[in-house]
Design goal:
Length: 325
């Protein structure tokens, strides 16, 4: 099996590379496992499905966060509505003869606003090489066909998905959803707070070329500042202390001035940032290009559950390719 990369994955001279998979049988089996429904009910999940009574007055939750997390994840993976998700869970529970109940659709909608989505445990230890980018997701509203047929020219509304991915195993480490008027750089501190452990390096595109981003990323480096790789703007200028104490951004600017931007990209490893674009593509391919929820808080929960589901699929198996020319 061969694959052709897009223009952004091209080699420096502009020619495209072709890749072939080493592990096609294993990767093919992993793709089939992504549709398996035999692993969704573990003994731990069944025991934690209904929370114990808190012993306090007032209403109590009938379903734990585990139950809501499971139901909303099934909804995302199978792209079904809340009522269909409830019916699907009912049928699974009935077939398996379990002594639990499926959350109804109104409970799923209400609990999704404040659900505490805990990330998966990391597969590897040590500092993280973080790749960050953002992309747009559609929200509920008139589609392109209505606009084309009736000639509507209303401003389309969308949400911005911010993602942080690990350079090594391509796991999604952090994510959030904001309105379309929120800048990319302003969401970096929140994304960094979701990442456990130290950060060895931080790579992002030119939209993140702000001193606040450098400061936030460097502060998460642990014993030494994290290495930040962000292309400076074309009109970027050196800081006031560039001669005596140059910052990482100052060194990037000087390298580009002396050797050129292409040499800087190769020497700094900036090309690895393209992997986060691939992660966003996987998100949109597996989960979809639009959000199901209509409330912003529910949409943020939805994105975190989606990333968690994608990480589970990633752990089943990923393609191992090599260049054939």
């Amino acid at each position: 099996m061969t694959a052709r990369r897009g223009p952004k994955d091209a080699v420096p001279n502009g020619s495209n590379r072709r890749y072939k998979l080493r592990n096609w049988p294993a990767y093919n089996a992993a793709l089939k496992k992504r549709g398996s429904i035999t692993v969704w009910f573990s003994e731990e999940a069944i025991e934690a499905w209904h929370p114990p009574h808190g012993g306090t007055k007032g209403g109590q939750y009938e379903y734990s966060d585990v139950a809501i997390d499971t139901a909303l994840t099934i909804r995302l993976v199978f792209k079904s509505a809340l009522r269909q998700t409830e019916g699907f869970l009912d049928s699974l529970i009935r077939i398996m003869g379990l002594n639990i109940k499926a959350p109804n659709f109104s409970t799923l909608s209400r609990r999704g606003k404040n659900l505490d989505v805990r990330p998966l445990e990391r597969l590897s230890d040590g500092p993280v090489n973080l790749l960050v980018d953002s992309s747009g997701l559609k929200i509920y509203g008139d589609g392109e066909w209505t606009e084309t047929k009736h000639g509507l020219r209303r401003r389309r509304r969308w949400r911005k998905l911010h993602i942080g991915a690990s350079d090594g195993d391509l796991e999604l480490m952090a994510c959030t959803v904001t309105t379309d008027d929120v800048g990319d750089a302003s969401e970096v501190p929140g994304l960094l707070d979701q990442v456990e452990g130290d950060i060895a390096s931080f790579k992002a595109d030119g939209a993140y070329d702000h001193q606040a981003v450098y400061d936030a990323a460097e502060a998460r480096g642990g014993m030494s500042p994290a290495r930040v790789v962000i292309p400076p703007r074309k009109n970027a200028v050196l800081s006031e202390n560039a001669d005596t104490c140059p910052s990482q951004r100052d060194r990037h600017i000087n390298t580009i001035r002396v050797h050129g931007r292409e040499a800087w990209e190769i020497g700094s490893g900036y090309g690895r940032r393209l992997l986060v674009e691939n992660a966003i593509y996987r998100y949109k391919t597996i989960i979809g290009r639009e959000l199901h929820a209509r409330d912003l808080s529910c949409q943020q929960t939805e994105s975190k559950l989606a990333c968690k589901a994608i990480n589970k699929m990633t752990r089943l198996g990923m393609p191992d390719s090599y260049c054939i020319g």
